[in-house]
């Protein structure tokens, strides 16, 4: 999810693992890590994308599901169910949009 910099495989392998494609939050494209600074910049960019995604998710679901009056310190059953469904739908829509954009990008590259 974070660019695959740690690699995978068995411990006996002397070959460094090739970097994986950046995660499923819309970054896309094949990374070309040429040096540690480029790797760090790619990781920082992906973290920014993930942070932005989480902030938008939080703001959207909070506005939709949490009432502005706080009679209790805990979420009500309705709020909890609403948040669960909201987060699930948000991830589903994001995945579907990412899939469509990836397919469009692949068609344009041909």
N-to-C SSE string, H for helix and E for strand: HH
Task: Give the integer mean of the pLDDT values.
Answer: 77
The first-to-last residue Cα distance is 26 Å
Subunit organisation of the chains: single chain
Word description of this protein:
- The protein is mostly helical and 110 residues long.
- It has helices at 36-65, 77-109.
- Helix 1 (36-65) crosses helix 2.
- The longest helix has 33 residues, at 77-109.
- Keywords: Chaperone, Disulfide bond, Membrane, Metal-binding, Mitochondrion, Mitochondrion inner membrane, Protein transport, Translocation, Transport, Zinc.
- GO terms for molecular function: metal ion binding.
- It comes from Smittium megazygosporum.
- Residues 1-40 are annotated as: Disordered.
Which SSEs are present, and which pair or pack?
Blueprint: H1 36-65, H2 77-109
Helix pairs in contact: 1-2
Brief synopsis:
This protein is mostly helical and 110 residues long. The chain contains 2 helices and no strands.
Could you name the key traits of this structure?
2 helices; 110 residues; 0% strand; Helix Hairpins; disordered N terminus; single chain; 57% helix; mainly alpha
């Amino acid at each position: 999810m974070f660019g695959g910099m740690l690699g995978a495989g068995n411990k006996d392998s002397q070959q460094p693992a090739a970097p994986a494609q950046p995660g499923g939050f819309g970054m896309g494209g094949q990374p070309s890590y040429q040096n540690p600074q480029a790797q760090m910049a790619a990781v920082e960019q992906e973290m920014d994308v993930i942070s932005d995604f989480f902030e938008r998710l939080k703001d959207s679901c909070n506005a939709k599901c949490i009432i502005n009056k706080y009679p209790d310190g805990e979420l009500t059953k309705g709020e909890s169910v609403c948040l669960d469904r909201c987060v699930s739908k948000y991830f589903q829509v994001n995945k579907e949009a990412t899939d469509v954009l990836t397919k469009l990008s692949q068609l344009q590259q041909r």
